[in-house]
Amino acid sequence: MSDSLREDAAARRAALDVTESCIVRAPAGSGKTELLTQRYLALLATVDEPEEIVAITFTRKAAGEMRTRIIEALELARHEPPDQEHKRVTWGLARGAVARDAERGWQLGLHPARMRIQTIDSLNAELTRQMPLLSRFGAPLGVDERPAEMYEEAARRSLRLLDEGDAAQAAAVEGLARHLDDDLPRIHRLLARMLSRRDQWLRHMGTSRAELEAGLKREVEGHLSILAASLPRALHAELIAVTGQAATVLRAEATRSQIIHCAGMTALPSPDAGGLPAWRGIAEF
């Protein structure tokens, strides 16, 4: 047996020590589900009631597959051991679980629902139902498979903060509206779409505002650089003159616009210059 196989076997044995906690990280198809099944069976042989074990997955499909594997293992444990080594490990652990089942009178074959193999959503809902006062919900909770209407309502409530929120909330929504030309229907659509993709950005919410603004600034500068590179050289002087004049007029009228930052601009930025010194102000939020 190679060193890598010996290390793998040792790691699998360690994961079946139910007196210790462990984290298993491995690629797809490496047998993680079978290892989890084995650990669950090992735990069944030690607990007083099967409800003491909680197995949590992300999807109902995965939870159903896990429950099916355990039930099949318990059934196969009543027959002769299989030939494959890894299946014999599962068979041996299942024998211990079957013996504990008989000793405690669980009858898991007839009552598989006693095994708490569930999704994160169902576990959270179960905990909330057990604490009706602390959860502060006035009605039973459930998981909605079509949350689009909720995203729409959350977006509408966010926009109402312009009038109903405190000063900080109103200022935040006002700033967003200003950058999007007060196009409230568009802002509503963007907010609802963001909520449907919150798994992509929610993890960044702990990042400081300075870091978020720096990232946004780099993104804007990059697009401005591409835009500048796409313009014919013959139009550069004309664009600089028109933009400078517009900035002067907007500043005189005390109009809030990012174009004001272009006052005094003498050249368009070059992608090869490594930055946007002439337009840097327009990228700041």
Structural class of the helices, strands and pairings?
A: mainly alpha
Contiguous helical run count: 12
**SSE string, helices as H and strands as E:** HHEHHEHHHHHHHH
> Distance N terminus to C terminus?
61 Å
Strand order of the main beta sheet, please? 1-2
For the biggest sheet, the summary is: 2 strands, parallel
Strand residue percentage: under 5%
Low-confidence sequence ranges = 273-285
Overall geometry comes to elongated
Give the averaged pLDDT, no decimals: 83
Q: How many beta strands in the DSSP annotation?
A: 2
Q: What does this protein look like?
A:
The two termini are 61 Å apart. This protein has helices spanning 3-15, 32-44, 60-76, 85-104, 120-130, 132-135, 148-164, 167-179, 184-196, 198-201, 209-230, 236-252, and strands spanning 54-57, 116-119. Helix 3 (60-76) crosses helix 4 and helix 7 (148-164) packs across helix 8. The radius of gyration is 30 Å and the shape is elongated. It has a two-stranded parallel sheet with strand order 1-2. The protein is mainly α and 285 residues long. The chain has twelve helices and two strands, in the order ααβααβαααααααα. 11% of the residues are buried. Mean pLDDT is 83; it is low at 273-285.
